[in-house]
Write a structure and sequence with these properties.
Number of helices: 9
Distance between the termini: 17 Å
CATH class of the largest domain: Alpha Beta
CATH architecture of the largest domain: 2-Layer Sandwich
Helix content: 25-40%
Structural class: alpha+beta
Radius of gyration: 20 Å
Largest sheet: 5 strands, antiparallel
Strand content: 25-35%
Order of helices and strands: HEEHEEEEEHEHEEHEEHEEHHEEEHE
Number of domains: 3
Strand order of the largest sheet: 6-7-13-11-12
CATH topology of the largest domain: Uridine Diphospho-n-acetylenolpyruvylglucosamine Reductase, domain 3
Number of strands: 18
Length: 305
Amino acid sequence: MQTATLSTLRELFGDRLQENAPLSGYTSARVGGPADALVFVRSADELAATAARLWEMELPFIILGGGTNVLVGDKGMRGVVIVNRARLVRFDTKSERPSVRAESGATLNTIAQRAARLGLSGMEWAATVPGSLGGAVYGNAGAFDGDIAGNLISVEILHRQRGGEVWPVEKMAYSYRSSLLKRERQPALILAATLELGRGETSAIQAKMKRLSARRRSTQPPGASMGSMFKNPPGDFAGRLIEAAGLKGKRIGNAEISPIHANFFINLGKTNARDMKALIDLARKTVFDKFGVLLELEIEVIGEW
């Protein structure tokens, strides 16, 4: 990034700016090279204002919330990375249909836990899912027969050309682990979302979340990962195919296909993105050669390599 551009960013963002910052500290897999610039935002308004200024400057940027579904190249990211810490959560418990409005940097677990304490149901599945609401809305995150598409009422969008918009859930055109925003790569970002909830007994809701969390711990590995690596192909499971291909426990460097669940790729310590990507490529090729199934990534591979 040019010195003059960095100087402008320093003037605009002050102590919210970090330069040449390793992204390994902001991704759940703990891998990723340096970003030219990191800018931290702590509210939806601050996120909108920051994005607007960067668009005016014609500076490319991406947004990281929990960093759970991305693999960042070892050479890092050019331009700006916005670290989303906009986490305001407000519940409407008085309406006939209770709901929650949360900013896009709020974590799914936080929303689910707070809802449970208020006796509000419907987000139990989300207590087991890492990452931020914005990423979940963008990619239609889900688990245990629940997903964002089933809860979403509306999403607040900032579009580069059209400004602020509120989209009803239908406009997101959700499909399995995808949305209109994800498929079309529109110049837009998610500021906040409103989710529908139900009513229940706090003890019963918390008990269900506890059961789901125990189930997740028993079937999915601990450690630094990006979550599920591949989407499940129709009528099958990516983890089953990778295991059947003989790759469970396979390592390249310190990157490992988990011996617990083959659709999770684990950073065993000081793993680089290159080794993780090599393991991804090996899994895709081997599964295709053996079974004729081309696995589709659930994560996004970004940055320079």
